[in-house]
Write a structure and sequence with these properties.
It is a multi-pass membrane protein. InterPro entries: GAF, GAF-like_dom_sf, TMEM65. Keywords: Membrane, Transmembrane, Transmembrane helix. Strand 1 and strand 2 form a beta hairpin. The protein has three domains: 34 residues, no CATH class; 124 residues, no CATH class; 112 residues, GAF domain (Beta-Lactamase), CATH 3.30.450.40. With 297 residues, it is α+β, with helices and mostly antiparallel strands. It has a six-stranded antiparallel beta sheet.
Length: 297
C-alpha cells in the first residue's frame, strides 16, 4: 500500500495523510519500508517467555502421564503377558501423546490467561532469525524444565516392583508345574508344596482336587506332619493318618478327606529345609487288560 501511494501521490488525500500520521505515532515501525528493524532485547525475552511457559506445562503433563501409565501397564499387562519394561514404556508414551493432543489447547488457553508480556512484533519482525531463535530457545528451555518437573512420580514409584512380580509369576508357574508333575509321578490324589517362612510353614502351591477346597494353611514349624518334616528334615510316609498323632484333621474340608500321606523335605545347597512336598491319598494303580492274553498288567 505504501509503495502504491508513493508511486501515485495524487491518491493521497488529507484523510489518508491523517490516518497514516496516526498509525505512525502509535507504531513507528509499522509504516517503514525495507527490512524490518531488529527487535529489542526486551522483545526477544518476551518472545522466549511467551513460548517457554506453555511448553513447561506440556512437558509436565507429557512426562507425568507417560511415567504413571507406563508403570501401571508394566505392573499389570507386563506381569500377565510377560512384556518388557521398555514395551510398557512405549505404550505409556503413546498414551501421553494422545493426551497431549487433547490437552494441548487447554494448556495454551491457560497460558494465554496468565498475563504474559506481549513482545508486540510485526509480522515481518516475526520472520527474523533472531526472533525465531528466541522462540525456539524458549520452547526448548520450557519443555526441558517441564519434563524434569514431570519426573516427580519417580520419587514414589518402586522401580523394582514390576521386576519382582514378573520373577514371582515365573516362579509360580514353575512351582505349579512341579507340583502337578509330582502328583502325576507319585500317583496321588493331591499334592501341596509348603514353603518355610520364618517360624511358619504355609501352603503356597496346591495341585489336584484339593486345590478347589483348600484355604490358606499356615502352621508353626513342628506342628502337623508337614511341620514335623520341615523341622526335622526327615521324610514321612503315613499309610493311615488316623493312627498318626501329629495329624491335624482340621485342615480337611467337608468335601476332601485325607487318608494317607507322604511328606518329603526340600533342601537348599546348604542342607537347610526350605519347603516340604506333601502327597495325599495314594491312588490305586491302574490295571489294564491286555487284548491278547487276557491277563493283568
Amino acid at each position: 500500500v505504501l509503495n502504491t501511494l508513493a508511486d501515485n501521490p495524487n491518491l493521497v488525500t488529507p484523510s489518508i495523510k491523517s490516518t497514516l500520521a496516526s498509525l505512525s505515532r502509535s507504531n513507528p515501525t509499522l509504516l517503514t519500508t525495507g527490512p524490518p528493524p531488529e527487535p529489542s532485547t526486551y522483545q526477544l525475552k518476551a518472545t522466549a517467555l511467551s513460548q517457554a511457559v506453555p511448553f513447561v506445562g506440556f512437558g509436565i503433563m507429557d512426562n507425568m502421564i507417560m511415567i504413571l501409565s507406563g508403570d501401571y501397564i508394566d505392573l499389570t499387562l507386563g506381569v500377565m503377558l510377560g512384556i518388557s519394561t521398555l514395551c510398557a514404556a512405549a505404550v505409556g508414551n503413546i498414551i501421553s501423546d494422545l493426551a497431549g493432543v487433547g490437552l494441548g489447547t487447554v494448556i495454551e488457553d491457560f497460558a494465554s490467561r496468565m498475563g504474559l508480556p506481549d513482545p508486540k512484533l510485526t509480522s515481518n519482525q516475526m520472520k527474523l532469525r533472531s526472533v525465531r531463535f528466541a522462540s525456539q530457545g524458549g520452547c526448548a528451555v520450557g519443555i526441558t524444565i517441564g519434563c524434569i518437573i514431570g519426573m516427580f512420580p519417580l520419587l514414589f514409584i518402586d522401580s523394582k516392583k514390576a521386576e519382582k512380580q514378573k520373577k514371582q509369576s515365573g516362579l509360580d508357574m514353575l512351582f505349579m508345574d512341579v507340583v502337578n508333575e509330582a502328583k502325576s509321578l507319585v500317583g496321588a490324589e493331591a499334592t501341596t508344596l509348603f514353603l518355610v517362612e520364618g517360624d511358619e510353614l504355609f501352603a503356597r502351591y496346591v495341585g489336584g482336587e484339593e486345590s478347589k477346597h483348600i484355604k490358606e494353611i499356615r502352621m508353626p514349624l513342628g506342628s502337623g506332619i508337614a511341620g514335623r518334616v520341615a523341622l526335622t528334615g526327615d521324610p514321612a510316609v503315613i499309610y493311615d493318618v488316623r493312627e498318626e498323632p501329629d495329624f491335624n484333621p482340621s485342615y480337611d474340608s467337608s468335601t476332601f478327606k485325607t487318608k494317607s500321606m507322604c511328606c518329603v523335605p526340600v533342601k537348599d545347597v546348604e542342607g537347610r529345609v526350605v519347603g516340604v512336598v506333601q502327597a495325599i491319598n495314594k491312588l490305586p494303580q491302574r490295571r489294564d487288560t491286555g487284548g491278547g492274553g487276557g491277563g493283568k498288567k
